[in-house]
Amino acid sequence: MRWANLLVLCPVASYQLAALPFAALFHHLSASRRLSPSARYVSLLAGGCLLATTGAGGYAALLFVPAAASVLVLLLVSPARVHSWAFSLQMSWQTLCHLGLRSQGPDPQDTRSALVLSAVMLLTQKVTSLSLDVHEGTVTLQPGQGVLQRALPLCSYLLFFPALLGGPLCSFRRFRARIECPLASYRPLGAAARRCLCALALQALRAGLQGHLATAQGVRSVWAQALLFKLAYYSQWMLDEALLEAAGLGPEEGQGDLSGSDLWALETSNRVSVFARTWNKSTSRWLRRLVFERCRAQPLLATFAFSAWWHGLQPGQLFGFLCWAVMVEADYRIHPFLRARAASRGAKLLYYGATWLCTQLIISYILVAVETESFSELRRLWTSCSSILPLSYSLALLLLPTRKGKQN
């Protein structure tokens, strides 16, 4: 194993690591009151613009244009219509970015398009979350102030560098409270260092397993690929949260994307639905608020379909997320049926072990499908023996009674 490779986990991670000392410096200056609130907003905004320009070059314009347009919409459109305007403009722009950059063809040496797409997707989360807050009246944009005074916090929130390329969604209310009243007693470096060490340990584990799992065949091959994908995601989420912690903008307890308890819950869960709610928790909460709670017909299917749209609508993503929706719906029917028949202790242990194994294999199948970038690879996955279990789960939708009520 090349240990030097662990210092650069991926293009996004390398920029996150480079930004860590600047995030710690920002928190130190803010907590010691050496920066005024306006200077804090400007510092975060300038850092975001510099990070975007450094990482994406000319592609950074694809991020700055929708950010500026969103600020204008938030300031000029009435609260009753602001969310529909912001949502339509941002998702239209993001879709055009996905289609335009994909048409250029993949270039492994050029990471700029991947970086800017990641930033645009996170911008969509912030824009739609803030527009919903304004629409629902939980956030007011201080109409008595001047235009520049109102625009500065918005621009800073949409482009602040600790959450530009990754990290859990931070609400505008929490962001504004932490900038205007930073916690002097808060010591973020310890939490940030622990998360960095966890990220490094997970990436080391991934590098160590990569060679051993390369020879897996059949169902074990799909499980091995998914395990490597999960470790990469876990390490990246840990690093994302470390950067936010270093800046003093870390998520509240239980509001981040990944903690030790979340990691345990993900890997020991015997429910596909529980895995879906725990995986990338801030995005799950955002999707629930944006789509699930506002959709009257087929909210579960609509939520996963929108997730596929938000991720880019590539063939593997479309198939993977729609498959995930079917698996969650089947999960809601299968478990009550099986629990009612697991009366003895031995039957309960068998029920948990069998459903845990099924959950692991189904999630592995979905992750590999989502990460598949070509029709030929997706067709090989469809026709493999790994499809037997998802097809068996799908039969539950025909054989078991329909669930009542609206699930989370």
TrEMBL record:
The chain crosses the membrane at residues 6-29, 349-369, 381-400. The gene is Mboat4. Its main location: endoplasmic reticulum. Keywords: Acyltransferase, Endoplasmic reticulum, Membrane, Transferase, Transmembrane, Transmembrane helix. This is MBOA4 acyltransferase. It is a multi-pass membrane protein. It comes from the Eukaryota. It comes from Nothocercus julius. GO terms for molecular function: serine O-acyltransferase activity. It is found in: Endoplasmic reticulum membrane. GO terms for cellular component: endoplasmic reticulum membrane. PANTHER family: GHRELIN O-ACYLTRANSFERASE, PORCUPINE. InterPro entries: LPLAT_7/PORCN-like (IPR049941), MBOAT_fam (IPR004299). One of its GO terms (biological process) is lipid modification.
